[in-house]
Amino acid sequence: MDELMDILKELKPDVDFENEKGLIDNAVLDSFDIVELINRLKETFDIDITPAEIIPENFNSAESLWAMVEKLQ
């Protein structure tokens, strides 16, 4: 989870990822951020993120992102 938080903080340093629960719903992350995030997650965790996983529920919070990473590992 620490590596994920580092990636998120590099992507958007001004966001409180520990408490934000609406990264997609509140437009904290835009489409370019999502593409960058997917690429970083693939590289860092050696996972394949398919289009089926690219849904708001998996990207709305750090916790949901981490759950997706763990499921795909």
Distance between the termini: 13 Å
Taken in chain order, the helices and strands follow as HHHH
From the spread of the alpha carbons, the general shape counts as globular
Helix fraction, binned, reads: 40-55%
The radius of gyration is: 11 Å
- Please report the number of helical segments: 4
Which structural class should the secondary elements be placed in?
Answer: mainly alpha
Strand share of the residues?
Answer: under 5%
Task: Find the count of extended strands (DSSP E, 2+ residues).
Answer: 0
The average pLDDT is: 97
How is the main sheet built?
none
Question: What is the strand and helix layout of this fold?
Answer:
Elements: H1 2-11, H2 31-45, H3 56-59, H4 62-72
Helix pairs in contact: 1-2
Describe the structure.
By secondary structure, the chain is an all-alpha fold. Helices cover 55% and strands 0% of the residues. Helix 1 runs antiparallel to helix 2. The protein is globular and about 25 Å long. The protein starts with a helix and ends with a helix.
Which key terms come to mind for this protein?
4 helices, globular, mainly alpha, single chain
Summarize the structure.
It is built from 4 helices and no strands. With 73 residues, it is mostly helical.
